[in-house]
Design goal:
The structure holds 3 protein chains of 3 kinds.
Chain A: E1 4-13, E2 16-26, E3 31-35, H1 42-50, E4 57-62, E5 65-66, H2 72-77, E6 80-83, H3 95-101, H4 109-122, H5 124-128, H6 139-151, E7 157-161, H7 169-186, E8 189-193, H8 197-203, E9 206-211, E10 214-220, H9 221-225, H10 228-235
Chain B: H1 8-37, H2 40-66, H3 73-88, H4 91-97, H5 103-107, H6 112-134, H7 139-159, H8 161-164, E1 170-171, H9 179-198, H10 200-210, H11 212-217, H12 222-248, E2 250-251, H13 258-271, H14 276-298, E3 300-302, E4 305-307, H15 313-328, H16 343-347
Antiparallel strand pairs in B: 1-2, 3-4
Helix pairs in contact in B: 1-2, 1-9, 2-9, 2-12, 2-13, 2-14, 3-6, 3-7, 3-12, 6-12, 9-12, 10-12, 13-14, 13-15
Chain C: H1 2-30, H2 37-46, H3 66-89, H4 97-119, E1 124-125, E2 135-138, E3 141-144, H5 145-167, H6 169-179, H7 181-186, H8 191-217, E4 219-220, H9 224-238, H10 244-264, H11 273-287
Antiparallel strand pairs in C: 1-4, 2-3
Helix pairs in contact in C: 1-5, 1-6, 1-8, 1-9, 1-10, 2-3, 2-4, 2-8, 2-9, 3-8, 5-6, 6-8, 9-10, 9-11, 10-11
Chain lengths: 239, 354, 302
């Protein structure tokens, strides 16, 4: 059984169709990149999977359970976590409070403490600044916080929307290194929106190419590297 | 003969121009029906309803176009009512009731029409001054500030006894407001509202309501358009207040406070804040419902038993209806549509090619 | 004299702060400017007495000993607010802030007229804790005992609330939700629980205001919540819409300004005190539309 199944998913905003009949599956432990130009429907796709955006039709399954129609918190409680576009950290809360917001759905306090230790080990800067207001962090640190905050819900599946947005290339390298390490460590399934197909190829994994609300290609991210010049012409700067 | 409109844009403009005409005809039919078919009480109800049309259409000029809810428009009605009282009451009466009035007001004994105009103008002036401050605030904060403004005016009116009579009523206003007088002002308000809505300023204001960011990017000075609408709007609320005073003959500050604010808001919301027709239809619908409720509060005799609703149930039912409308039909009865003639009528071709 | 003004300012400002918190808590989590809050206060006042149209109130709940009365009336306020949320605001969860605000105004009118129908329109004399009216000598001033109680209670409530928001799970979730409700939900925070919690707190705070008003004025009047709600609104706007510390600070400031106006305005201008207060506030907003106490993290989102 696939970890995540998306079937004929469509999203409309008024008359505008942002996503039309998208279908794909993601296997347990897989890393899937979703790439494509602005307006391709990538964020709408993640929104519809996480329950933040209402789908016009189609359905989403996780481990065979139908997620569609549940509230965002209901979906989060089933083990799906989201690192949204723009990170959306709680700026007025401290770093540690940010990390704890998502632990309300967990009953095992000891496991929460363990995860906190894991996250702090992976991102020592967050530990150093755990009592600081999250709004005072740099962009890269905020991205790490957003990823860590999602991890604290103990997800089986994590959606990450443009982790490289607005960050210096060196910082992006660091973010991806940690993300990949954490995935291996915890057996996570990852779905990552990444505008740069070159970046996706370097990190490695499967890739969906979207345009105009549809999936136009599906394959190994490295195989897209051959078309790098072409895709850069279409999709803008590599990271 | 005017040339045939050809572009869809011209046709739309023609259709839009039929809205105030149709609304005026609707109100005319309402008055005719009430005066010809009903008793004196029905005629009074018709006059009262048309005064409310003046008030609510005035209110709509601001709220409908800007999307900002004002709780302060009853204050303009208050100022209008007292202005007309100050100007039209017998000077002898004023020395008795309102000893603190300045000399020229104490001596004034104006005819009612200039007094009504003065009522509107003074209300508009107050709107210009207060709006200059309040409308700098963002939507919700502006609403709260209008509420503070209403309370401020009410506090002043209830305590400035030598000039306003304080909480005791000012009596003896000439009761000249027949259904026809009220109809005249209601139609004037509708025409002004339609003209304003079709003006560049009205269009710009509605554009800023739909999409604040885009409107700002296209260089729309929202504050100025809001202030203009607020001022025009207050003029008709001021006139409406004067009409209210001369309809009942008695005024006191609390007739222009929360109940009036609520009634105006309820009518606008139920009819639909998105269109001028919605404002008018809301007044008619709620007024007819209120009339039925008032008769029920007095008691209805069925056979040998009399049923009567307790006083206050009117507001309870209107409030309930309003909440239900907000939940189930948030855009109101008319849902933002205007009453207008269909395209094939205004093109004069008999059939539509659209 | 000046000590007297200080105590007046603290007790009045404290009550304004409590009322403003009741408004800001709900605005924070669901962007609702709750125009029914004044009626939550009025209903809590009338919950003390038995329904009748008589001029002198017969105490119902109000006859309980304070140890029972206070929790009972707080529970009543909280329950009323939670019911209002469930029946009026939950169906409007996805509506615009303007529609929410208009609905709350309608709810306020509804509650006020329910009170009118049940209790009649005349204000009623009501005697709650008359022994608190006694003055106490404190240094150079005579302070009513009630004022000391009010100041103490406000202090305890503010501290308790701060502790709750800072240290408890629901407090953390409320603060997160106030900043970004959608994100909080994506992290598994239950919307209904947070919103009900905010309403319950807000209703309980309204009940606190009700108790103080009754003890201070000795009357029950269906209109009595209106003035204080308005001041609370103003405090919320000045505090920067939804910022809780801002609301408290602005409430205290408004209390201080009120007490000063009351003390230093010429007697013939005193009835206009509130008009001065509202006017002053509009002026302040003119120069700082984002609120007096708005910080970067609590800027208006409307």
């Amino acid at each position: 059984m696939s970890k995540l199944g998306v079937h004929d998913l469509s999203v409309r905003y008024g008359k505008l169709t942002a996503l039309s009949d998208v279908s794909f599956t993601v296997a347990e432990g897989e890393r899937l990149f979703i790439s494509g130009p602005n307006g391709a429907g990538k964020s709408s796709l993640l929104g519809a999977i996480s329950g933040a955006v209402r789908a016009a039709h189609g359905r989403v399954e996780m481990d065979g359970d139908i997620l569609s129609g549940h509230s965002p918190e209901g979906i989060a409680r089933r083990g799906l976590s989201m690192v949204p576009e723009g990170r959306r950290i709680f700026r007025a809360l401290s770093v540690q409070e940010n990390l704890m917001v998502g632990t309300g759905l967990r009953r095992d306090r000891a496991a929460v403490a363990d995860d906190l230790a894991t996250v702090y080990a992976a991102f020592p800067i967050l530990h150093d600044r755990r009592h600081a207001n999250a709004g005072a962090l740099s962009g890269g640190q905020q991205q790490m916080l957003a990823i860590s905050r999602a991890l604290m819900t103990n997800p089986k599946l994590m959606l990450v929307d443009e982790p490289s947005l607005g960050l210096a290339p060196k910082v992006v390298d660091e973010v991806y290194d940690r993300l990949v390490a954490l995935q291996a460590q915890r057996g996570l399934t990852l779905v990552i929106v990444e505008q740069s197909s070159a970046r996706a190829a370097r990190v490695g994994g499967r890739m969906l190419l979207m345009r105009g609300g549809r999936v136009v290609a599906d394959g190994d991210a490295a195989s897209f590297a051959a078309h790098d010049l072409l895709s850069e012409a279409y999709f803008g700067d590599p990271a | 003969m005017s040339p045939q409109p050809t572009t869809p844009h011209q046709i739309r403009r023609r259709m839009a121009a039929t809205t105030p005409v149709l609304l005026a005809l609707l109100l005319l039919a309402f008055v005719l029906a009430a005066t010809l078919l009903g008793d004196r009480a029905t005629a009074r109800m018709a006059a009262e309803t048309l005064i409310r049309v003046t008030l609510v259409v005035g209110f709509w000029i601001f709220a409908g176009n800007s999307g900002v809810i004002s709780f302060g428009h009853a204050a303009f009605a208050c100022l209008g009512a007292y202005t007309s009282a100050w100007l039209t009451l017998q000077p002898a009466m004023k020395t008795l009731l309102l000893p603190g009035l300045p000399g020229f007001l104490a001596q004034a004994h104006w005819p009612v029409l200039p007094a009504a105009l003065a009522a509107g103008l003074l209300a508009a002036a107050l709107a210009l001054i207060s709006g200059a401050a309040i409308l700098r605030l963002s939507g919700i904060a502006a609403s709260i500030a209008t509420f503070a403004f209403l309370a401020m005016v009410n506090t002043i009116w209830a305590n400035w006894t030598p000039v306003t009579g304080g909480t005791s009523s000012v009596v003896g206003l000439a009761r000249y407001v027949s259904p026809w007088v009220a109809l005249g002002w209601a139609v004037a308000a509708i025409l002004a509202a339609a003209l304003h809505a079709a003006s560049a300023s009205g269009l710009a204001l509605r554009a800023s309501r739909e999409d604040e960011v885009a409107a700002a990017a296209s260089g729309i000075d929202r504050y100025r358009h809001r202030l203009l609408a607020y001022t025009v709007s207050a003029f008709f609320c001021g006139v409406g207040g004067a009409l209210m005073g001369h309809f009942i003959g008695v005024i006191n500050p609390d007739s222009f406070y929360l109940s009036l604010t609520f009634l105006m808001l309820a009518m606008l919301v139920m009819g639909g804040i998105g269109s001028l027709s919605g404002a008018v239809v809301g007044v008619l619908a709620v007024s007819l419902a209120v009339e039925a409720l008032v008769r029920l509060e007095k008691g209805v005799t069925l056979g040998t038993t009399t049923f009567a609703l307790p006083p206050g149930s009117q507001e309870i039912l209107i409030a309930l209806a309003m909440i239900l409308v907000l939940v189930f039909r948030p855009a109101g009865l008319l849902a933002g549509r205007e009453i207008m003639l269909p395209a094939r009528w205004v093109t004069g071709r008999g059939t539509s090619n659209q | 004299m000046s000590l007297q003004i200080l105590f007046d300012a603290l007790s009045l400002g404290g009550i304004y702060a409590i009322a403003a918190l009741g408004i800001a808590l709900i605005f924070g989590v669901m962007k609702l400017v709750n125009f029914a809050h004044g009626q939550f206060i009025a209903c809590s006042v009338f919950a003390l007495i038995l329904p009748s149209a008589d001029a002198v109130a017969v105490l119902g709940l109000g006859a309980l000993p304070a140890g029972l009365l206070i929790p009972a009336i707080l529970l009543f306020g909280a329950g009323l607010a939670v019911l209002a949320e469930a029946f009026v605001f939950r169906p409007l969860r996805n509506a615009s802030p303007v529609a929410l605000m208009v609905a709350s105004f309608a709810l306020g009118i509804l509650l006020q007229n329910l009170l009118l129908v049940t209790y009649g329109g005349r204000p009623k004399a009501i005697s709650l804790w008359p022994e608190l009216g006694q003055p106490v000598r404190l240094l150079s001033a005579e302070i009513p005992l009630l004022q000391l109680f009010v100041i103490g209670a406000v202090g305890v409530i503010l501290a308790g609330l701060a502790l709750m928001l800072k240290r408890t799970r629901i407090g953390l979730e409320m603060r997160a939700a106030a900043e970004d409700f959608g994100m909080a939900r994506l992290l598994g925070v239950r919307a209904n629980r947070v919103i009900s919690g905010a309403f319950a707190l807000s209703g309980a705070l309204a009940a606190v205001v009700a108790l103080v008003l009754v003890a201070q004025t000795g009357v029950a009047d269906v209109r009595m919540g209106g003035q204080i709600m308005l001041v609370a609104f103003i405090a919320t706007v000045m505090g920067g819409m939804g910022s809780l510390p801002g609301a408290v600070a602005a409430g205290l400031a408004l209390g201080a300004v009120s007490a000063l106006l009351q003390a230093f305005l010429p007697p013939e201008a005193r009835p206009f005190r509130d008009a001065f207060l509202y006017g002053l506030v509009i002026l302040v907003l003119l120069f700082r539309p984002q609120g007096l106490f708005a910080s970067a993290s609590a800027k208006p989102r409307v």
